[in-house]
Design a protein that fits this description.
single chain; alpha/beta; nine-stranded parallel beta sheet; 16 helices; binds zinc ion
Length: about 425
């Protein structure tokens, strides 16, 4: 067992923050040998309950749950910051040419190593990530994540049509590859597999049907895809599937909406779509830096809450512009604030509370993924993934955080002014 004394943030079951300015976090192995939180709370209350346990004192530091990124593309690490006129030209000109290089296992391994380093530097301890259409791109990432003891979920992209040579796969082989990768990686240590149709336009009916059949056969395997990101894309899906009620409805028809199904964006939805998400248990990966960068639109928080639909935050690198959860939370705040009218659409502007933005990127994201109670929080029983934050990481942060009169003020200063410099240490599985 080991203990850390510092300010301590975690969340209760009602998503509210629990905060101890002088806190103690005690970690140790559970019956599986997994390092988990054994106790968390006020230092003076807990300190005598663990005699003989070494306490590392971290004065001036804040310990918080490791961040969970609900949607990211590890092969797009080098696509970040590529200029393009919207989603479809961006895919064609940058993303597909880049992803074609992942047929080379050595190249995939080099990017996987850099990518996981970058997640760690930014305090992200769990990610749901796309690989490319090449099975070796999954092997490269999973092998490296396993060596680091990470709780990570990834999948081989399915895209057997409307995709250029080099990334397009073949229907039957792609489904066999998916089955083989599930057998090889799903449930190995802390790893999970996600069935990964890129998006409806890139998958034939046969491939989508096959993906749905695999999903039905493996209910604890994840599903990840994109939906209703961009108006040109929505129009294209309407042309491809004129019989579907909506873009989201295409995924329903193929059995791809259920718990552990995570759909990036979910911007151009109506209330039927939101109700369908709630009824099926599928959730949204809200990707605000990506949506602002590509001019895709604004996720409607008020409508999502009204419908009771689940969601969490995501970077969506490389459409997203940062690995940093602080940048993502700030962009989510901007997206929430935006009130939009026009074209028959209306979105209410609101101010998301700092602690709620933080929840959406930790415990809320974990819950959306079906990993509630496992990661994303630091109440007893959660796996010991956390970050040590240095609130005085820059002169302006030091000045601003010193003036914070409440937890909300402190968290908002970190969100607005913070980046990877805030993350002094990232602890994964107690290491
Ligand atoms: Zn994406």
């Amino acid at each position: 067992m080991k203990a850390y004394r510092a300010a301590l943030l975690r969340f209760d079951d009602a998503h509210q923050p629990l905060y101890d300015e002088d806190g103690l976090l005690v970690i140790g192995p559970d019956e599986r040998g997994q390092q988990v939180v054994r106790a968390a709370g006020n230092f003076n209350t807990l300190k005598d309950r663990y005699p003989g346990v070494a306490i590392e004192h971290l004065p001036g530091r804040l310990i918080a749950p490791g961040f969970a990124d609900l949607h990211i593309h590890y092969p797009q690490t080098d696509v970040i910051g590529s200029p393009a006129e919207g989603l479809l030209p961006w895919l064609e000109n940058y993303t597909f040419p880049h992803e074609s290089r992942f047929s080379d296992p050595a190249y995939a391994a080099e990017v996987a190593t850099f990518f996981l380093d970058e997640l760690g530097r930014n305090g992200v301890t769990t990610a749901l990530t796309f690989a490319t259409s090449h099975p070796q791109s999954v092997d490269a990432l999973m092998g490296e994540a396993r060596a680091r003891g990470l709780r990570l979920v990834a999948g081989k992209v399915l895209q057997d049509r409307h995709s250029p040579d080099g990334v397009r796969d073949q229907t039957e082989q792609s489904l066999r590859d998916t089955e083989a990768l599930i057998a090889k990686w799903h449930g190995v240590d802390r790893l999970g597999y996600a069935i990964t149709p890129r998006f409806a336009p890139s998958c034939s009916d046969a491939q989508m049907r096959g993906a749905g059949e695999i999903a039905a056969a493996h209910p604890d395997v994840w599903i990840q895809s994109h939906v209703a990101e961009n108006l040109d894309e929505v129009k294209w899906v309407r042309e491809l599937y004129p019989q579907a009620r909506s873009y989201l409805d295409v995924y329903r028809q193929f059995g791809l909406l259920r718990e552990r199904a995570v759909y990036a964006h979910c911007i151009h939805f109506d209330d039927h779509d939101r109700a369908l998400m709630r009824e099926t248990g599928a959730v949204a990966a809200v990707s605000p830096t990506s949506n602002l960068f590509l001019g895709s639109g604004f996720f409607d928080y008020a409508a999502a809450d009204q419908a009771g639909m689940g969601y969490g935050l995501a970077s969506d690198v490389g459409g997203g512009t940062s690995f940093s959860p602080f940048h993502t939370m700030l962009a989510a705040y901007h997206v929430g604030r935006a009130g939009v009218t026009g074209g028959g659409a209306f979105k209410q502007g609101l101010s998301l509370k700092p602690s709620q933005l933080w929840w959406q990127h930790t415990a809320g994201a974990a819950r959306a993924m079906g990993l509630g109670g496992v990661v994303g929080n630091l109440t007893p029983g959660h796996e010991a993934d956390f970050v040590v934050i240095r609130p005085d990481a820059t002169p302006l942060l030091a000045r601003k955080t010193a003036q914070a009169d409440s937890l909300e003020e402190l968290l908002f200063a970190l969100i607005v002014l913070g980046d990877d410099r805030l993350i002094e240490r990232t602890v994964v599985a107690g290491r």
